Amino acid sequence: MHAVPTSYHIARACGLVVWLASGCGNEPTNDDGVASTTEGGSTGASTSSGPADVGSSTDGDSPHEPEYCAGVADMVEARAAAAHEELALVGLSVAVSFDACDPRQFAWGAASLDVAEALTVDHLMRAGSVTKIFTGVLLLKLAEERLLELDETVDSFGLDVPFASSITIRHLLNHTSGIADYQHHEGFRQALQQDPSRVWTPQELVEYAMELESAEPGRHHAYSNANYVLAGMIAEHAAGQSYADALRTHVLEIAGLTQTYVEAEDAWEGPTAKGYLVVDGGSPQDTTGFYHASQVWASGAVVSTADDLRSFLHQSFSEDFLDAPSQHAWLEFVPTMLPGITQYGLGLFVLESPHVTAIGHNGAVMGFQAAAFHHPESASTVTVMQNQLALTPAGTLQSDPAALAVEILETIDMALRR
Model's pTM, two decimal places? Predict the structure, then answer.
């Protein structure tokens, strides 16, 4: 166990991160090394890259891409580098693809402050509630394979919850099931803080949600991580595999993702960044592994690289990966009452800015934040991962990588319009 903050600050931070569901879904929420870049194929498939050398960069240009690509990529790199410095982040990793240009990856800062290890584009980080995109797509792929139907009710899968004969898989994925969030249960919060390393079963998480008041399904949107725990249980039932194995078989292998895992279930090799908590501008404190990932499971336990997240989201917007009926269901949105989030689909939401409409999800777990967003009009995809969670003394987030992702999408859109 790593050293962690104590007293008031850790209590505030733990309480916030628990409430955020490893996902920041309720809130559309110092090393000056030069970024490293790698090139990838125009299909959006992930590519591997060597470690980033602090103070150096590699050319990501390809002779077959349009001439304007390098200039737009330079603008993206400059904006992200400025954000790394302005926010004083421990480490920042960004991956982007747009138009007919090759994907780019960038990394700044440190993967570990203990041994002065530079962050590279290959470092794995926790994705938080970006996991919900994966879970939503998994259920869509299982529906394509006729292993389930989105309008099947949850009692068909042996789940005993209020309104089980009325709640559908679609209700779970767009958060209109009426099922409360177990992370709002005071008993769960207390149990988690008393034993942060406890390994939770999905059923234990659901039981806390069942002790809270449920609403009638289909009436309104209410963000709840219990929905995605139940969705993970349904995926296991339909696929006859563990959640991690089902995700690998029906999504990751098809998409060619080699650096994405479910932390609560998978083992992996390769560099993994440490996560840091910063409270009120104080010193970063290592909180890696403070909570066991089973407490968020199918709602927030994915670990990945920025480029694997980018490749996954980019491919998911192609009918080569999700067929037309799945695309339609995936992007059928319901209105929300969440600040800054106008609509929620089957595992992803809409952020509106003055210049772009971004579709994706953000996430936050102790020590990490992430965001993955797509702009359909410019066929641009941006993912942002950071190994730092910065809080005010009141326990609110000081920054959200979703904001940086949208700014980068705006930069790309305006550049392509010139």
Answer: 0.87
